[in-house]
Automatic annotation (TrEMBL):
Protein name: Putative 6-phosphogluconate dehydrogenase
Limits of the 6-phosphogluconate dehydrogenase C-terminal domain: 164-295
Source taxon at top rank: Bacteria
Secreted keyword on record: no
PANTHER family found in the cross-reference section: 6-PHOSPHOGLUCONATE DEHYDROGENASE (PTHR11811)
Organism: Rhodococcus wratislaviensis NBRC 100605
Length: 301
């Protein structure tokens, strides 16, 4: 019998995951109150459409939205049903969710998902946490979502509840550092007059070099579409995982200078006129008489 999965959240990731599951022969029923592609009109209808024991994968933003959905599911599901949090929840939230559901006889897994908008085509890397029996039960879903090839290359049962999101948190912290290194290299190339074609240099690194990666390929693609990145602002958000990674590095006394610096660089990107750098400029002027650049006078509204 074809496995049925309920999927809550049809955003950029969730919608593509639903389509990949369907393309791989699973029946995925999606619900999202804000999406025209929703298959049902309510969470109740989603639960009613699934055969017992039910499996529901939650793919909504971390924090309050995830807690709200899991709370609603706790009142709709029955003992033996299974909930998977596949969003970017903080690993400490997983035990809370698991304990609440366990009191009602409902099973729980957490799963970090990486692959972005390319996952429908290329597959997703999956990092799951929870009991082995629940992992086995959902393995057809994991196998449908991950890339083709050896399971161990793109799927891991990382440990008990919370371990999947912890692994994804560290993954995203590493991602911060890698992106920052590529970005700084790009800026340094662009600053040198002798470099005639910055995108061409980066593209030449795509094959054979020790720094080749998918992130580098994506940077090359972005520059091919907008060579000077002139259509973009430097303002860069962080979704939380970088902060949590740095907090965990502190808690475990693990030095993580690259990830920390990458996180702080994102904070710096949001400051139009950095108070800290103003203070540095003032100090240089005070102790050394170094020239300072005066702020432009405010315009008249």
């Amino acid at each position: 019998m074809t496995m049925k999965l309920g999927l809550v959240g049809l955003g950029r990731m969730g919608l593509n995951m639903r389509e990949r599951l369907r393309e791989r022969g699973l029946e995925a029923i999606g619900y999202d109150p804000h999406a025209a592609d929703s298959d049902v009109d309510s969470l109740e209808s989603l639960v009613e459409s699934l055969p017992a024991p039910r499996s529901v994968w939650v793919m909504v933003p971390a924090g309050a939205p995830t807690r709200e959905v899991i709370g609603q599911l706790s009142r709709l599901l029955a003992p033996g049903d299974l909930v998977v949090d596949g969003g970017n929840s903080r690993f400490t939230d997983d035990k809370i969710s698991a304990d609440v559901l366990a009191g009602l006889g409902i099973r729980y897994l957490d799963c970090g998902v990486s692959g972005g908008i390319w996952g429908r085509q290329d597959g997703y890397a999956l990092m799951a946490g929870g009991d082995a029996a629940d992992i086995d039960r959902l393995m057809p879903v994991f196998d449908a979502l991950r890339p083709d090839g050896d399971r161990e290359d793109s799927f891991v049962h990382a440990g008990p509840v919370g371990a999947g999101h912890y692994a994804k948190m560290v993954h995203n912290g590493i991602e911060y550092g890698l992106m920052q290194a590529y970005a700084e290299g790009y800026e340094l190339l662009a600053a040198e007059d002798s470099i005639a074609d910055v995108p061409a240099v980066l593209r030449a690194w795509s094959k054979g070099t020790v720094v080749r990666s998918w992130l580098l390929d994506l940077l090359v693609q972005a520059l091919s579409e907008d060579p000077g990145l002139s259509s973009l602002s430097g303002f860069t958000e962080d979704s939380g995982e970088g902060r949590w990674t740095v907090e965990e590095a502190i808690a475990h006394a693990v030095p993580a200078p690259v990830i920390s610096a990458a996180l702080f660089a994102r904070f710096a990107s949001r400051q139009h006129d950095s108070p800290a750098m103003k203070a540095v400029s003032a100090l240089r002027n005070q102790f050394g008489g170094h020239a300072v650049r005066r702020a432009e006078p405010a315009g008249i509204a």
